[in-house]
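Notes from hallway chat w/ T.B., transcribed later so I don't forget. T.B. wanted the structure written out for a chain they're using in a teaching module, and asked if we could keep both sequence and structure tokens in one place. Agreed to drop them here.
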Amino acid sequence: MNKKDVVEIVAKKSNLTNKAASEAVEALLAVVRDSLKRGERVVLTGFGTFSVRSRESRLGRNPKTGERITLSARKAPGFTPGKTLKKAVR
């Protein structure tokens, strides 16, 4: 399933036009993205929590040459599913 499929389903379930549903989906994604950029958590009760996780620097290998390289520390987005979502998937 891709974003286009999600927009079509949202439009059908909420009696919106595809354009309005697309704007709603884009707005939700923008809110989540902007909150994560600021380092905030986004908690959607019953679905899950989006957060920013810190990854420490570590050693890696260049797959082409086999040379050891140091991968720098960085931040990465993370998602933890809620209980309701876990039960629905089982």
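Follow-up for T.B.: The chain has a mean pLDDT of 95. Might be a good example for the class.
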